[in-house]
Structures are given as C-alpha cells and as structure tokens.
Amino acid sequence: MEKYDSVQGRIHRDGYALGYTIEGEGEPLLIIGSHVFYPRTFSAGLRSKRKLIFIDHRGFSHADRGVEARDCKLVTITDDISAMCSALGLSRLDVMGHSGHGYMALEFARRRPDLVRKTVVVATGPSHSSEHMAYVERIWGMLAAPERKHRLAQDLERMAAKIDAEPEKRFIWMCLGLAARSWFDPCFDASDLWQGVHVNMPIFDSLWGDVFRDFDPGTALQEIQTPLLICMGRHDHLVAPLETWLPLNPDNRQPVFALFERSAHTPQLEEAERFDETLLNFLA
Question: Pick the catalytic residue: 98, 101, 132, 265?
C-alpha cells in the first residue's frame, strides 16, 4: 500500500495550540477531531483519492491557560475551524465529523455555507438528549448478545481502576472500556489508536454532557444547504441509531443515509473498503 507524506503543524489561537495533519492527494476533505487519533482510522486507499486534513478542536489541543466556559461552545469551535481553514488556505471543501464531532461538522456547515461544499457525519446520533440515550439503552437491552454484555461488565471494572489512576485521561479510558458497545468485535483493543492523544477533560465533560445533549438536529437539518451524508454502524450501541434521524428530515431536502452492517461506532476502520466507496461516491 502506497505511503503518503504527512505534513503536521499547529495553529496558535486564543491560548490553544490547534494541531493539524495533512495526508494524501486530491480535493480536500476536512476531518474534525484529533489530528493524532483520526489519521489512524482512515485507509491509505482513501488518501489516494482525497487530501485528508485532520484538525484538533480545543478538547484535543494543548493550552497555555485554564479552560473557560467559552472554550466549550460550538460557536467557538466553528470559529476555530474557520480560522484554521483560513490559515491553511482552504476556501471551498468537504467536511466530516465522527461521533460527537459530527455536531461540529453540522454546525460548521450551517454557519459557513460559503466554505462547505458537502457534509458527512459518521456514527453521530441526532443528539445526546435523554430521549435519544434512552433509545440506545433499549436497543442494547433487547438486542445485544449475552457475551457482549458480559464482556462490557468485565471491561467496565478495568476502566474504573484506570480512571481512578489517571482521571485526566477519563475520556480515553471510557472509550477503551466501552469496546463491547463501540466495536463490531467486542474484544477489539483500540489502545494503539489513542497513543499520544491529549485530552482536556473539562471541555469533553461540557461538550458530551451538555452541548451535545441540547443539540437541535431538526433545526440543523433545516438550515444546512449543502448535501449531507449520514453514516451509521448497525451494531453501534453508543449513539441513537439511524432510524432516529428519519423524523427530523426536512421535506424539501433529504440527507443520504448509509448503514454499515458489519460495523459499530467506527465504520471507516471496521469496513474501510465499503466506507471509502460510499464516501467517494457521495463526494464525487
């Protein structure tokens, strides 16, 4: 498999050193999240078709000051994304967000239609509201195999000990401890994906606990003018499933949906070939 050069750097903004990684060739695809974690989840084949630009948000970047309330707002994050696009010379591009970063991609597409051509969200439920999270729990309780539930119980015990030892990495330990809910293979060890990833826990607590809980997906879908692809894994037990998006669709503009039958929360890695084909067909 061909290797592509990696260009890395940091853009200093408002006390944060926002990292970026650029790999591949072709038209730009901006991927919001961690510039360390996410390059490990996308295929080399995709890099032969697209220039992948991975950027941090404040939750993943080093800072020279304490966290303030404004650091956790979607408007601040989208302003950061706009500033990074300007610094990197990006004037028109496609944008993607995975998991909670899907809300960032949707908000960026809503606020900056002048910059965004097409939008992709992967493994993102409509929100983290109590209603949507209760739906996730019902599906888990009814459909998850006993072996998967047993594995989760074991992993949660280990996760609790890790969090007690390193509370500043709680988000990472939670992701690793929830493998049975987040991977098609419930025994998958994602430790290598998280090596060297920095997290600012107060920002993650606010985003995942409050901001994404209160996200208004109906308004977002109504206001986003660019074509939208929503990708979901059949066995994803972390977020509300694909069907919870359906009542929110605007009548005049339907998103494209893709369901990956042998994936959970990370179809770009779990079914890379089919994911790449689906993504490139949409972006073409």
Answer: 265
Strand ranges, E, within the chain: 6-13, 16-24, 27-33, 50-56, 62-63, 93-98, 116-122, 228-233, 256-260
pTM of this structure:
0.96
Q: Which residue has the tokens 């949409």?
A: 282
Q: Is 56 a residue of the active site?
A: no
Please, are residues 15 and 61 in contact by the beta-carbon 8 Å criterion? no
pLDDT tens for each residue of 106-159: 999 999 999 999 999 999 999 999 999 999 999 999 999 999 999 999 999 999
Q: CATH assignment of 6-128+199-283, given 3.40.50.1820, 3.10.560.10, 1.10.3720.10, 3.40.30.10?
A: 3.40.50.1820
Catalytic residue chosen out of the listed positions 61, 94, 98, 99? 99
The answer to whether the beta carbons of residues 76 and 58 sit under 8 Å apart is: yes
Marked catalytic residue, from 236, 237, 263, 276: 236
Q: Could you confirm whether 265 is annotated as catalytic? A: yes
Q: Are 55 and 32 in contact (CB under 8 A)?
A: yes
3-state secondary structure of 32: strand
57 is catalytic: no
Q: Tokens for 34, please give them.
A: 């961690």
Task: Locate the domains of the chain by residue range.
Answer: 6-128+199-283, 133-194
